[in-house]
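Hi F.,

I've been meaning to write this up properly since the lab meeting, where we talked about keeping a consistent format for the predictions we share between groups. The idea is simple: the sequence comes first, exactly as it goes in, then the structure tokens exactly as they come out, then a line or two of notes. No screenshots and no reformatting. I'm using this chain as the first example so we have something concrete to point to.
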Amino acid sequence: MSEIVIFDTSVLMDHLRAGRYRRAFADVRGVVRMSSVVLAELWGGASSLEDIRCLETLGKMFPVVTPNEEDWRESGRLLTTVGSDKRLEAEQVRDLHFDLLIALTARAHGAKLITSNRVNFELIRGYREFGLEVW
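Output, unedited:
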């Protein structure tokens, strides 16, 4: 059975905007799934008709995985714990929430998450194990 791969927003943005990671994308082996949270983040930054067309295509090309009810609850519990442990400001906690949901979704699907956001995802992995590759 092939490994499931989910790309984080950071990698997709760098690739779509600047063509970064072209070679790395070509070398990825596995079954690609899109995270609904990543799609939401990308839609939030869409600023042109080209962006919108690209996102519509991404959403159709790859099956979308979504956080389930328990992932949402767990993300809230972890936000409280991490925020307290690391003494994060309210804005930092808010910024971490989507990353937690992406990581928990990857974990629930046994997927490897590929990101360039080392700081947030290694922090999260200190609390919950999940497959992670940092580019």
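Notes:
The chain has one domain: 4-134.
The chain has seven helices and five strands.

If this format works for you, I'll send the rest the same way.

G.
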